[in-house]
Design goal:
Chain lengths: 206, 342, 522, 414
């Protein structure tokens, strides 16, 4: 190969082709003018909580894409039905994730609908799961001598509560919890839902 | 190659041997990986037949009766279905002739298919048969009539007797049995037929020991008082084992050896074979040491006469005293026949 | 559906036809190196510069870069980039180590948002990719391209401006991420506003390299040049498209994300690493590579197949089946270019194993090249649906990512840096033993890291696939392996400190007697 | 720049000025072979999987339709699946337990009344064809769509009431709206009274009294206490549950109490429940059980695990004797309504919860089943079976009223 111009053109052409195949074609296929029935937009509070979720890097340990029962027991674990592309209609940036150091969270709002549980768990995961390796987020909470009007006090099992005073959730913690509780894609999958069906049993495929 | 000048000659000469070695290594490694990947892909796409996931169902060594989805859509199939309905739900579908809370399926598990639960596919080819119990040749209809008489305690039913000879109940039940035995040999004793046997133990049997076995293994379903349990509609889920709603003294199950075999081979449900021989004998003795409806054959005879005539030498407490109580008297007759409208 | 299925088939057929055409062309000598070009590497006028017939440059395949003044021009930009890259490497690996430790000491350093795992891990990734690997890669390009083109770097000031902008953007990006300002997608966390600066800096790197290419004094472009020149075209396209704000959303954003993230590895870091190895292995050994035709297959195979791979990160996810399948098949097809590169590089090393004893830089580079083969084979196997079911979502993939980005690219670049620095400075490393120590620290550290994560991740994946085992089991059983990872990571970080010391020791003015500092020439 | 002063310690060392280049060797044949082989099976794989994958998507969408009740089965199939466990395929019911449909005046009145009873359910004594029954029929409102109600009611009325009127889906929808707040019929007398139809002599309905919930128990349920979260925060205000948080409404009080004990004793592993039960007294456990056992809530469970409902129905109703798995209903009652505290209701339980518990038994994290019955059964089931049976049970109507007290009374000797 002796010429730079052909080299560049062919290289970029190949990349353009790959972009067409991997980005544009699936993008067109998954494009949807309408959200699926059953999915609502995030409220302002939930969206703020989502921003906290993003900024804390939750996605490095938590996926948001339950797998099909033929592939993995996600449904049995309560993580929800296999997700389809339309379930992410309002999501940007996407938080699909590629790690399950912690469990999948796409339906955590349905599976663990307790705000007070989440506050405890965010303040100190090991107050509930002694084996957990999730970071604690004490900086989203405040220790006060006495709860004031409107404060949300965090329920803490003995041994995890501060020696004196009470633990109160900050607005960020409440937002984050609101976002977690909004994660609920248990409505029936839209009929035109798109997902990877490559694991379905081959059985009677003719 | 012309450029290999004297300067290159100073360098250690290229070792072509080593190069070939590495080359071969790379090819071998590459080929192995390709093979592995091909194999994996073929396996994934199901093109390797031998590697298909093994069938989950354990093929038992026993005769396999057809499944319900194989009942034909024909007048015969209709009869099979009716027979199955009677078998499963005897008190409703042979209402006039059932005087207790049982149905055929209580002892013939798996809809009459389960081995060592007196499966019907094994019984079908064994009749007509001479039975000492009534000293005559028994047809299948005769045999089922016996079931109604003793196990279903027909004496307390609305009609007070088993279905008369020629009744449709027998037609439909026999259609069902005949269909269950599709492909089974005729007049041959089949593996898994009957209830099986439990060898006698050195200690014999004892209701006292049996009480403990019962409390530990049976009471959770059949209730501490052995009266079974009903759902909220009053429908028996677990059958009563003794007392007025159970089989009468003339039933085969009232014999301790028969009950022990049934228990060991079938109970607790889902865990057959977990009781030892001794436990099976003891708990069978315990269950059969309570009063139950009187032997339907007693008529005007005394208990002792009945015992001598029908139970002599059997492993049964009929006509004996257990804990100071004479057994065989029978539970009191109901105020009105079982199942009769109020 | 049918249309999409056809597209899928079309894509594969196109790739396959392209490869077939290439092989046909090679076998018909359509693209054979011009024998004239290959033999006569000097333009007729150049020979006038050679002052004595005794020098190497009068012979074919020989060229004195020092005398021609080429290295002198490149030295400053390369030095600046190397220093910056080394600093980011050390900082980035410290963040990596902290992140690793936090996975088994979750309550350590948990009082500040900036030090939470999700941010520390992000900092690690961005600093080593953008701070270290990209800069050291560009440094290698600036060093190597003028040499193989027999012409000094054009516009040598631009890379200095580029480096300033680039490092400023990386620093600001790190501060932004630590404070929670992120674009929120893996590999693309640096806010897009700062990405603009990175892109601008990229232009300052690209322009001199392309100008140098256009002004080259040789007709034939050596294989390293293909990788480097394609890389500097591919990466900006990827980077700009993936970072476009307000364009992507939902799952489409996820496909863009993984198309980008995987192509950063495949079309940016891999060209850097393979290109570097292609230059330095024969350079150090003094022997040509095995086959021009094979290197063509390696390069175009990479371009055709690697570019369509990324979506295997979403196998079993909410993407069209055919896209996932497409990526799986193309992943497996990667065997072809990888085996091609392996033939060319390993045969050259394998025929000259003595050189590994001679040359510490070669030890790094040969090891790195071997790891390219390993990482790619592992990647192809890992993409298979059955294997992916186990490894996806586990630490196994983290081990694989490090096999590619660390054991292959980073270790190769270590070797390149150790080879370049004496030639840039005209000095020698005073403590070669430290280079050796560096090598063994990172190799042993990496081995512990890799095997820990691979075994732990595999077990983790099996536990997650078994519904009768609670999720907690998949966490608990990985803990010892995560601890092993920290041990390996600590050794690697220690190795990087040694590396930084080595770089500093040769770059800083040395107060030692002349006699020790310079080694007399032959 | 200094001159070349690089060390040359070893004379074998190559010279500094060497320039890398490529030799002119041809492509080794194994590489070509590998490329051809990969190309061939790559194409074959794509060709093979493409057909499979296109079919897979179609199948998945069909499954989705089935699970969301959008595919309507004909009346007889619906009857077999949902009514026959009690009323039997022949419509004769169960003597002394389940009234017959055949010849029943309730059915002869036509599909409106049938649909009405299906939507509301019956709790209380009822007389059919001279026999008296203690009526406990669940409400199917949360199980059937309007189309299914119409289809099924028309089928039942035509087959056993010889009434040929066909109920339209719109009428069923209208009826549903009208009766949605009325609760279940109070026995046969209630049906006669509410509809004004002639249904013969019906026994009177004796209404019981509901015990009010003690304030401290109510606080426990709705507000939580100290380091504990409230019950309702996870299990819902009405104990209806979601996903793998179980439905508690209608579970026997003694069963709930026993489970709370078992969480504390480690016979059931659930970290969150362990935190909650740590500070509960025995009295509180009993009171909580009593509270939830008395709740009657429509089902919010759906078969959403992608299981095979036919297989699930087979396991629930017949069992699989080849696996030594008896039917669920042989112990948990013919409609999964439960039997005494040892055999809790399964109907309308969330599929994810049921499946996760079967998995927990199989995996040894739950060890509190009498005689290890469930441990054995769960271990014998495959993952697909666990999902199938859980899905089928989730599709059933919730347990009708009247269980709590009756069953608690039955279980008092244990």
């Amino acid at each position: 190969m002796n010429n730079y111009l052909p080299l560049s053109i062919i290289s970029l052409g190949i990349l353009a082709f790959a972009t067409l195949m991997l980005v544009i074609a699936p993008g067109i296929e998954m494009a949807r003018p309408e959200p699926p029935a059953g999915l609502r937009p995030y409220t302002a509070e939930e969206q703020r909580g989502r921003d906290v979720y993003v900024s804390m890097g939750c996605l490095y340990c938590h996926s948001q894409q339950p797998r099909a029962p033929e592939q993995a027991p996600d449904g049995e674990r309560g993580w929800g039905r296999p997700s389809v592309s339309a379930d992410y209609f309002y999501d940007s940036p996407h938080q699909l994730g590629t790690m399950r150091t912690g469990p999948d969270l796409l339906n955590v709002g349905a599976r663990l609908p307790s705000e007070s549980w989440h506050l405890t768990h965010l303040y100190q995961p090991r107050a509930i799961f002694d084996w957990s390796i999730m970071p604690a987020y004490p900086f989203l909470f405040e220790v006060k001598a006495k709860a004031e009007e409107g404060d949300v006090v965090v329920a803490l099992p003995p041994g995890f509560a501060p020696a004196e005073g009470v633990v109160v959730a900050s607005q960020e913690a409440l937002d984050l919890t609101a976002y977690l509780l909004s994660l609920d894609r248990t409505y029936p999958a839209p009929e035109d839902g798109i997902r990877d069906d490559g694991y379905r049993p081959r059985g009677d495929a003719e | 190659m012309s450029h290999e000048t004297e300067k290159d000659a100073r360098a250690k000469p290229t070792n072509p041997r080593k190069g070939r070695y590495v080359k071969h290594l790379i090819y071998a490694g590459g080929a192995t990986l390709i093979l592995a990947a091909t194999g994996a892909l073929l396996y994934e796409s199901g093109l390797i037949p031998g590697l298909e996931r093994p069938d989950q169902t354990v093929a038992s060594g026993y005769f396999q009766a057809p499944g319900n989805d194989q009942i034909p859509d024909s007048p015969f199939g209709e009869s099979v279905r009716r027979g199955q309905a009677i078998f499963m739900n005897t008190a409703t579908n042979a209402s006039d002739h059932v005087g207790n809370g049982l149905s055929c399926a209580n002892c013939h598990l798996g809809e009459g298919r389960q081995p060592y639960s007196a499966p019907m596919w094994a019984a079908w080819g064994r009749y007509p048969q001479y039975r000492a119990k009534n000293d005559q040749i028994n047809t299948m209809e005769d045999r089922v009539m016996g079931c109604f008489t003793f196990s279903m305690n027909a004496q307390h039913s609305v009609s007070g007797e088993p279905p008369p000879h020629g009744d449709d109940i027998y037609r439909d039940l026999q259609s069902y049995f005949y269909w269950l035995a599709s492909g089974a040999p005729n007049n041959t004793e089949m593996e898994g037929g009957g209830f099986g046997n439990v060898p006698k133990t050195e200690l014999g049997y004892s209701p006292e020991r049996g009480q403990e076995v019962f409390a530990a293994n049976c009471a959770v379903c059949h209730a501490g008082d052995g009266q079974g349990q009903q759902d909220l509609n009053g429908r028996y889920v677990f059958p009563p084992l003794w007392g007025p709603n159970s089989y009468n003294w003339g039933a085969g199950m009232a014999r301790i050896n028969t009950a022990a075999a049934f228990i060991q081979n079938n109970m607790p449900l889902s865990q057959p074979g977990t009781l030892t021989d001794q436990e099976a004998w003891d708990v069978a003795a315990y269950i059969n040491s309570f009063e139950r409806p009187k032997d339907a054959r007693q008529g005007d005879m005394t208990i002792e006469e009945t015992r001598q005539l029908f139970h002599d030498g059997d492993d049964i407490y009929y006509g004996q005293e257990v804990n100071g109580v004479l057994l065989g008297v029978g539970t009191p007759d109901p105020e009105r026949p079982v199942g009769a409208p109020e | 559906m049918v249309t999409m299925g056809l597209l899928l088939a079309l894509s594969f057929v196109v790739s396959l036809l392209a490869l077939a055409f290439l092989i046909w062309a090679i076998s018909n000598k359509q693209v054979a190196p011009d024998q004239h070009d290959a033999r006569v590497i000097f333009e007729p006028g150049d020979e006038g510069h050679v002052d004595s017939g005794e020098t190497a440059t009068s012979r074919p395949y020989h060229f004195d870069t020092v005398r021609s003044g080429i290295d002198a021009v490149s030295t400053r930009p390369v030095a600046v980039l190397l220093i910056a890259a080394t600093v980011w490497l050390v900082i980035g690996s410290v963040f990596g180590l902290v992140a690793s430790l936090k996975l088994h000491w979750p309550d350590w350093l948990s009082d500040h948002a900036a030090l939470t795992f999700g941010r520390v891990r992000t900092l690690h990734l961005n600093l080593v990719i953008y701070g270290w690997l990209s800069q050291v890669g560009i440094a290698a390009m600036i060093w190597v391209l003028p040499r193989i083109f027999h012409t000094p770097l054009r516009a040598p000031r631009l890379p200095l401006i580029g480096a300033a902008l680039w490092n400023a953007a990386v620093l600001l990006g790190a501060i932004a991420i630590a404070n929670g300002w992120t674009d929120g997608e893996e590999w693309l966390e640096i806010p897009w506003q700062l990405d603009l600066v990175l892109a601008l800096a990229g232009v300052f790197f690209m322009v001199p390299l392309i100008k140098t290419t256009l002004a080259r004094q040789v007709h034939h472009i050596y294989v390293t040049g293909w990788y480097f020149l394609a890389g500097i075209l591919w990466f900006p396209c990827l980077f700009v498209i993936a970072n476009l704000p307000y364009v992507h959303s939902g799952v489409e954003e996820a496909t863009v994300n993984w198309w980008f993230a995987h192509n950063v590895l495949g079309l940016w870091l891999t060209p850097i690493g393979v290109g570097t190895a292609y230059y330095f292995i024969p350079k150090i050994i003094g022997k040509p590579v095995f086959s021009y035709a094979v290197s063509l297959i390696g390069f175009w195979g990479l371009a055709l197949f690697y570019s369509q791979v990324g979506i295997h990160h979403l196998i079993g996810g909410p993407v069209p089946t055919w896209v996932a399948t497409l990526s799986v098949v193309h992943s497996v097809m990667m065997f072809i270019p990888v085996i091609a590169v392996a033939i060319n590089q390993h045969i050259t090393v394998g025929q000259n194993l003595w050189a590994l004893k001679e040359s510490l830089p070669l030890r790094f580079i040969a090891f790195g090249a071997l790891m390219y083969t390993m990482a790619s084979f592992q990647g192809s196997i890992e993409a298979l649906r059955s294997v992916n079911s186990v490894t996806h979502f586990t630490h196994y993939t983290v081990g694989h990512a490090h096999l590619g980005a660390y054991a292959f690219v980073t270790i190769t670049m270590f070797g390149a840096v150790y080879h370049m620095l004496p030639r840039m400075t005209g000095r020698v490393f005073r403590w070669p033993a430290l280079i050796n120590a560096h090598f063994w620290l990172v190799v042993i550290g990496f081995a512990i890291y890799f095997f820990g994560l691979s075994i732990g991740g595999w077990l983790q994946g099996l536990a997650m696939l078994d519904g009768t085992r609670p999720f907690s089991e998949s966490v608990i059983l990985t803990k010892p392996y995560l601890e092993a990872r920290s041990v390996g990571g600590a050794l690697m970080t220690l190795g990087h400190l040694v590396f930084a010391f080595n770089v500093a020791s040769i770059l800083l003015p040395q107060r030692v007697p002349e006699s020790v500092r310079t080694v007399p020439a032959e | 720049m200094t001159a070349d002063r690089r060390p040359q310690r070893d004379p074998r060392h190559p010279d500094e000025h060497f320039e890398p280049y490529e030799l002119d060797a041809s492509i080794p044949w194994p590489l070509l072979g590998i490329a051809v082989a990969l190309g061939v099976w790559g194409a074959a794989t794509l060709f093979d999987t493409r057909r499979h994958e296109e079919r897979a998507q179609v199948e998945r969408i069909e499954d989705t339709r089935l699970a969301t009740g959008q595919a309507v089965e004909p009346g007889h199939a619906l009857f077999e699946a949902s009514c026959a466990t009690c009323h039997q395929s022949n419509g004769l019911g169960i003597r002394r337990a389940v009234p017959p449909l055949a010849g029943s005046p309730f059915v002869q009145h036509g599909p409106e009344l049938v649909a009405n009873i299906m939507l509301r359910g019956i709790d209380g004594p009822i007389r059919v064809n001279d026999a008296l029954y203690d009526g406990h029929m669940p409400s199917f409102a949360s199980v059937f769509t309007d189309v299914e109600v119409a289809e099924l009611a028309s089928y039942v009325a035509a087959r056993w009431g010889e009434n040929d009127r066909v109920l339209e889906a719109a009428e069923a929808a209208e009826l549903r709206g009208r009766v949605s707040d009325l609760g279940s019929f109070r026995g046969g007398a209630g049906v006669a009274e509410d509809t004004g139809l002639a249904l013969g002599d019906q026994p009177p309905f004796a209404s019981g009294t509901l015990q009010p919930v003690a304030p401290e128990i109510s606080a426990l349920i709705f507000e939580g206490r100290g380091g504990q979260w409230s019950c309702a925060s996870c299990h819902g205000d009405l104990g209806q549950g979601r996903e793998n948080t179980p439905r508690l409404a209608g579970l026997p009080a003694d069963y709930i109490r026993k489970q709370l004990h078992d969480f504390a004793a480690g016979r059931r592993l659930n970290e969150s429940m362990a935190v909650v039960v740590a500070e509960l007294t025995d009295e509180e456990k009993q009171a909580l059980g009593a509270y939830y056992s008395g709740l009657r809530v429509p089902s919010n469970a759906r078969p959403d695990l992608g299981g095979d409902l036919e297989r699930g129905e087979q396991l629930a109703r017949e069992g699989d004797w080849s696996l030594t798995v008896p039917s669920c209903f042989s112990c948990h009652g013919p409609s999964g309504f439960g039997v005494a505290p040892e055999f809790p209701p399964l109907a309308a339980q969330h599929a994810a919860y049921t499946a996760s518990q079967l998995a927990a038994w199989a995996g040894g994290q739950r060890t509190n089943s009498s005689l290890d019955l469930m441990e054995h059964i769960s271990s014998a089931l495959s993952a697909a079976d666990r999902r199938s049976v859980a899905d089928y049970l989730a599709s059933l109507p919730p347990v009708p009223a009247g269980t709590g007290d009756t069953l608690a009374a039955q279980g008092e000797d244990r």
